[in-house]
Amino acid sequence: MHAYRSHTCAALTAANVGETVRLSGWVHRVRDHGGVLFIDLRDHYGVTQVLCDGDSAAFAELETVRSEWCIRIDGNVKARDPELVNPKLPTGEIEVYVRELEILGKAEELPLMVFGDQEYPEETRLRYRYLDLRREKMQKNMTLRSDVVASMRRRMWDQSFREYQTPIITASSPEGARDFLVPSRLHPGKFYALPQAPQQFKQLMMVSGFDKYFQIAPCFRDEDPRADRSPTDFYQLDMEMSFVTQQDVFDTIQPVLQGVFEEFGEGQKVDADWPQISYKDAAKWYGTDKPDLRNPIKMQDCSEHFRGSGFAIFANLLENEGTEIRAIPAPTGGSRKFCDRMNKFAQGEGLPGMGYIFWRDQGQGMEAAGPLAKNIGPERTEAIRQQLGLGVGDAAFFLGGKPKAFEKVAGKARDVIGEELGLTEKDRFAFAWIVDFPIYEADEETGKVDFEHNPFSMPQGGMEALEGDPLKVLGYQYDLACNGYEILSGAIRNHRPEIMFKAFEIAGYGKEEVEKRFGGMVNAFQYGAPPHGGCAAGIDRIVMLLADTANIREVIMFPMNQRAEDLMMSAPSEPMSDQLMELGLRVIPQDQ
């Protein structure tokens, strides 16, 4: 018999009754039934109930074991009495009578329990991550992650992609976030960087004649943490293709991601129709470039109904250039109680409140109620109702000013309204391509033009587009949103050196600066670069959605905390003096 096990803790069934078996695992739970010990023995695969009484030579030693001790038992498989069968367990028809016991590893008093669903502070969970990972939910999450990655690989290979690896140590190259720098011992005073993404290398592969590339790529960014973002490193499904249009990229990646969500979505509906929404319309309709389309609410511009109206706040706002009044329809939200709740939400977001109108039945017909309705009168109120397609029992909320100043709050309000009124459809994955991103923006105070989004995407219209108003230039850049999260970003690349130099010139970067920062790629583009494009899908965020959690640390094996610290391994740590000397570095104390 094997030294540790003949079966896993999920393998035994009624067909094994009468056999002598060996199991190894962790003591999940101990129950003492007056001279008979019952232990749930757990391994990665499942749980088997083992029992022992005073007739067994192992009884005295088994009485000493506690939760999370690692043990090995030998015993006989017995059928459970019919009334004691546990249909929830694959091993629920049997139990194992223990004849022999070996303690493989004792456990001290536990800082967190593995058995049960107790909640523990995240600091405790991350400090003792090896215990946290023993819990059933975390075992499932990590297995899901592994299976998702394997599925992605298979699906990419099935589309004739090959996986290639790109360097982990490279040159610093601004990608929109801070680099992690690595000092060079052989070149004192110089630094490498961990790659924020394989961006330049995958484009260079296309120049090298490799037609299709993908990689499950580690990326490193020194970012401020969020619940849905790791502050140090993450993984992405990275891909690039030559001789493709934007639509070719969409048609290639959709079956991969849609297939993954169908395979691991546990029966939830996975939309097959992925609409393409311009960045401008996404902001206008949803207040965000990562809209949750499970929520049917679409905001609308209602400025004309308030221009010159009796509601002076909005009427005066509209006299300023670039302002508008936007309505957020709220079907079934037509009660003063709900409107007051939304007003409180707006105040929590730093606004004085949120204008609203709600429609109610007064017995002699429909009536519009609320402060706005009184100020603008029945004719304008009715025009708003008809534009929004609302009726009795419905409401609408209003925000005004320059769109960039209120869109974020409006988007949050839309989400809250959809959730509270039960309008947001659960058990569904809804996708949307966000396209036509503007390449440039102007500083409101100085008027200086700079890049708003990816500077390496090909401008729509090429060089000709760059000769006109830069604020009207759109790029072949795209994101994929799912249920309110951005899960993919990509672009058709700007592979023409003359167009690239012009694009950077508009933003105030001279040719020398571009060559200094991106010399390797710019030089390569002068030797017959093909049109190419691709994208990168965030694996951590995709698994987070599939695992139905809003915290990305729940699907990363050993994550950092919100302060970019590894509490388990005590990182970051202070270097030893001889390490600093070897690298020619000195740490300057920071003023407290």
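(ticket continues) Second input and output from the same batch:
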Amino acid sequence: MKKHLIKTAALTAFALTGSMLCNAQSAKERKLVLNLANTGVKIQPTMYGIFFEDINFGADGGLYAEMVKNRSFEFDDPLMGWKQPNSDRHKLNEKSGYASAIENNHPTNKHLLRVQVKDNKGYSLINEGFRGMGVKANELYDISLDAATIEGTITAIKLQFVDAKDNVLGETTVNVSGKDLKKYKAQIKATKTEAKANFKVTFTGTGTINLDNVSVFPKDTWKGRPGGLRKDLVQKLYDLNPGFLRFPGGCIVEGRTLEQRYQWKKTVGDVDNRELLINRWNTEFDHRLTPDYFQTFGLGFFEYFQMAEDIGAEPLPVLSCGIACQFNTGEMVPMNELEPFIQDAVDLIEFANGDVTTKWGKLRSDMGHPKPFNMKYIGVGNEQWGPDYIERYKAFEKVIHAKYPNMIIVSGSGPFPDGEYFDYGWKELSKLGVKIVDEHFYNTAEWFKGNATRYDKYDRKGPKVFAGEYAVQSKAIASPENKNNWDGALAEAAFMTGLERNAEVVNLTSYAPLFAHAEGWQWTPDLIWFNNLESYATPNYYVQQLYGTNAGTDLVAVTEGGKAITGQNGLFASAVTDKNTKEVIVKVVNTTKEAQKTDISVKGSKLAKTGKIITLKGETLSTENTFGAESVVPKESEFKLNGSKIDVTVPAESFIVIKVKLS
């Protein structure tokens, strides 16, 4: 069983939790009934999952641990991210040298950097990283670069971490020789912790040298994989106990134009040969322009599948359906030219699941994973809408199911939770008998609390729901002033009781977006925030974690006056049993400013004499977590049952999880 990072309060065995120190006598009393009779509704293993998109520097500069920005000089400006402090091409006789991009005879790696070193005064190049580079004292960093000495006496390259004042924070030297481009490797041990370090490359000798693929990775990556993923960020994903990982987006899938769409085949194979693409979020928002935001695809489809396997999640890739983002160009491939898009989907299934004797299965094996990834789901389109989407979905479905009849295809209802596009999509997709429809909703805290009953009347025999993107917007959708505060997290917790109560219809759910770089974000709010050295979990994260680590296996009923508890007097609740841990789990959310005492009588089974309560609560609704100061965290304690009753006090504006063993 996975070990999860739930923080516990040091309380005595039968004490109330520290967050329940309010006088139970003064709390409003609610008489609830927990009926443990079998409802026949299973909680799907995929119920609580993860949505990943490369927004907010989520991949390059984030999850993908590469520290050098524009390592292969393929950005639109080949020297973006690189500085030449002692060079001036207009005054070459007064300077030590200069560097410029030259064309490379390669289909994807189209540029090399040619460096002209004029004297022995120490000509250097400096890479700024992603808003700096985070280095930690005594940690090792793997360095690699491709070099070819074209002419002259350049025999060595000094590689250093430096701070803003050019103080050296660790260094090494590689000796270079030969006119053919070849890879050199080294390591640097950092001597000091610095969040804003730069990487300095200095040449010994004079002459001309070509450079490419200049790379720096922490040695301590997730699972120790060279060139791998940032350890602390993957750990936070693992700790969510996710049922699935949806990737690579999001609007990234669509692209502003079809040419800029995400094409999975360009993200596999040798990392050095993957074709760079401008990130569609680079200048999407005027409030956060990031023209230096590109996708190197070092985190590509193989790495996504591998990460899903690592964290115990079902992989759920989403592919372009042949329509670019309809909020941008809405460019569409003609139906008679759609075949290559469909073939990409068929080939992806072969890449994930095919035998090593197949073309794409062999590539997966060559990349280090002979066994299939056992992919069960594939998404067609992201937020497309209208007849054009339905027409293209039908074409994909026909071909995919002809070859892979058991593959579960995820369709989409568009970008809105209601309205003309939404209604049309659901109507047409239902006619087609699709298995799963993806719904997205970003809205206010009040909307989320008011929609805890959203799925109560959905057709139990119709398509299942994937609540694929949702998050409370504290200010407005896409506003840079949105906050990851307790108010939003509490409303999401209340809403999620409705998802759980309707597990017969809702089979997959995920918050979005996932990651945000503290200095490189475009969209708020986000589940996990990070800088170059550390990361923190938001209150929203801990809500997701409490659901994911307490998902259970079977839905049971918790009611008040014979009715589901869906916000009456500010109280929301849902309940499950877990056949593996043999316990009942009740989730209760109190959105009022007063504590509420829950007098829960139990029917259908006997319970143990003691149980556990996990409490999540902010000091105020505006409370947020920050770097080094997570004040909204789960706190666990024990309580004693009142005979066969669960009598606990739910603090004002709090979310609690009650866990009791079945006797």
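Agent notes: The first strand starts at residue 28 and ends at 35. Residues 98 and 199 are 17 Å apart (CA to CA). Closing as not reproducible unless the customer responds.
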